[in-house]
Amino acid sequence: MRTKGGHSAVGLHYKSHQIIDGKPKLEGLPASFPGEEACQTLILTCEDPELKLEAELLYTVFEKEDIITRSVRIVNRNTEDIYLTRVYSACIDMDARDYELLTLHGSWARERQIERRKIGFGKQSVDSVKGESSHQEHPFIAWMSPETTQTQGEVYAMHFVYSGNFHAQIEKTQFESIRAIMGINDEDFCWKLGKDEAFTAPEVVLTYSAQGLGTMTRHLHDFYREHMIRSKYTHCKRPILINNWEATYFDFDTEKLLAIAKRASELGIEMLVMDDGWFGHRNDDATSLGDWFVNEKKITGGLKHLVDEVNKLGLKFGIWMEPEMISPDSELYRAHPDWAIAIPGRTPVLSRNQYVLDLSRKEVRDYVYDAISKILHSANIEYVKWDMNRQLTDIGSAALPADRQGELYHRYVLGVYELQERLITEFPDLLLENCSGGGARFDPGMLYYSPQIWCSDDTDAVERLKIQEGTALMYPLSAIGAHISVCPNHTVGRNTPFETRGNVTLAGTFGYELDITKIPQEDQEMIPKQVEMYHKYSDLVREGDYYRIASYRENHEFDCYMVTSKDRKEALVTFVQVIGRPNFHSRCVRLQGLNPDWNYRIEGTDGTFGGDALMNAGLMVESLWGDAQSRLYHLIAEV
Ligand code: DGJ
Hints:
single chain, 639 residues, 9-stranded antiparallel sheet, 13 helices, 34 strands, binds (2R,3S,4R,5S)-2-(hydroxymethyl)piperidine-3,4,5-triol
């Protein structure tokens, strides 16, 4: 904080409190909502009488999911302006035990890798100053007793409902206590607050589990499904899509897309998604972002014609857009060079040959929104993939005064939220999938607008095991965008069986990303079986309780997880043998989440086993020959 006099001291003291039914909305921000469950909110008002600054601390309790949310609203009651230089959203102090810290790190094609380490004295943090939640670090921290596993141990966690710069820190102090904080990163943050103006800091989701990480995960999954994702698709089967990105990259036209759509419809796929390259004169990543009009040289006959033809084949149609960006080679940039985020006098850094639009400006947001809306009105488009392919740099807005430049990062995120809110309000039936160069903006904030988010550009089945394990630590499988692609895999060059690619993709939204007309005949023939598998298990995977049984990340040999229906009458176990082991004939995996008193039949076999036996002795996995081999076991309770 800075006053006009340049001072930074602030002393907030209790002023009043109230407990209200329900949960107030956070203006302009994504936030959890009560849903079916009644909840109450404690509003604690603190005040600095010298500064006439008020801070409202909002705590909402979600009893069923063992979750408390916390956000902060700062109000300036002074006649003088105040500059907020740091507003974190939550802080927890507790006695330090021998805790370990769990964080998620990553990179493009390697998002959300789980890491655990001992918490030493001093401060340990993860953050982002990339303008988005980022590939590199995730706005989540958990701290736990060292013996904590999936099934035992105490875990505390914080998850930030925000899609921009964040800071999450844990500190072990001189008095051997722990202080955990989370909020908007204060780097380059400075928010001017005039008289009676308010600033709302985004929400943090706080949770605790006394039964290990697995319980934490299931609490978060339930919480996000019931209290964060608003889409009508949350509890609905999503159409199986085929996306042309890895199939064609920029090299496509109407004819190619229709050939893919035709074969896809024959095999039971339900939607064609046209990815990057359909607008302006975009044949590579160097041009046309911002020029959202159809390139009729490629899309001969126009967009409506293409969509109608795809619909005639019995498929829905979806489209890719990257609304937040501007290419220097675009009509938009030539008309409005000042719409790009840049610092006067400096040439901004290009990344993927593009700049970022200054979404803090209303006229820019209106242009972007009109462009999206026009496209969506021009044809029967039922799905949008909203991409964002670079991080923010050269933080400067041509429209903000000098003392508000420090607001740009946050105003940008608010601009994204406003645009997506307008979109889903005008098109309530639209299925929106967020994406950011793979999974760089996979966060609870984006889930408020889209029920699913593209998880990673890495579609290799083995890499996906680790990426999806980290993602599913917090997010329900129904939110995780996953596609089957070709081999050798375009990112890592690895070959895996088509069947395993399908089984791994089942733990997500399920789709294809390949040229279906070119893949081997036997793979094409497997697609109807995979489609059937998806329809059979989709409700279970989307709505069920997720249990992590074994982790390839930890054991370097095999991966295993399962989903159990809420009534425990059905479960699906996925086992992947990543590396075959010589002279090793069977492996037992101890299941979880079954009813110990019931017997379960394993579909496709004569085997019936007690739930207690499957959980204590384990399920015997048949001997598999080769690397990246997988099996699904469908368990049905005999009750
Ligand atoms: C990044 C996305 O993650 C990909 O799926 C694809 O849409 C490309 N962008 C297109 O440019």
